[in-house]
Amino acid sequence: MEVCLCERAGKAHHDVRIAGSKLPDVPLPPACPGCGIALDLETMRKHNYVCGDCGHHFRLGADAWIALMADRGSWKERWAMFAHTTF
C-alpha cells in the first residue's frame, strides 16, 4: 500500500493506493449525507469511500478492510463455516 499526500482544491488529503487490487463495491446512497453532493462510485472507491468535499467516511465491510489492510495474496480465510450469532 502506498500513501501519497496530495493537494486538492486547497485542501491536503491522503490518497491511498492499493498495489494491484481494487476496493470492492460498497453500497452508497445517491448523495453524501454530510454535504449532499452526488456520489460517483469510481471516485469514491479511489478515495477509499471518504467524501472528497466534506470528509464523511462511509461504512466499509470486512471485505473492504481486508483489501486495505492485507498484502495481496496473503489473506486466507479460516473457519468460514462459523457464522455470527446474536444472543
Mean pLDDT: 75
Number of domains: 1
Distance between the termini: 38 Å
Protein structure class? alpha+beta
Largest sheet: 2 strands, antiparallel
Write down the secondary-structure element order.
EEHH
How much helical structure, as a percent, in the residues? 10-25%
Task: Please report the number of helical segments.
Answer: 2
Tell me the fraction of residues in β-strands, as a range: 15-25%
Strand order of the largest sheet: 1-2
Annotation, overall tally of beta strands: 2
Radius of gyration: 15 Å
Shape: extended
Low-confidence stretches: 1-15
Notable characteristics:
87 residues, extended, alpha+beta, disordered N terminus, 2 helices, two-stranded antiparallel sheet
Task: Give structural notes.
The protein has one domain (2-69). Helix content is 16%, strand content 16%. It has helices at 41-46, 62-69, and strands at residues 2-8, 11-17. It has a two-stranded antiparallel ribbon with strand order 1-2. A hairpin with a 2-residue loop joins β1 and β2. The chain is extended, with a radius of gyration of 15 Å. The termini are far apart. 0% of the residues are buried.
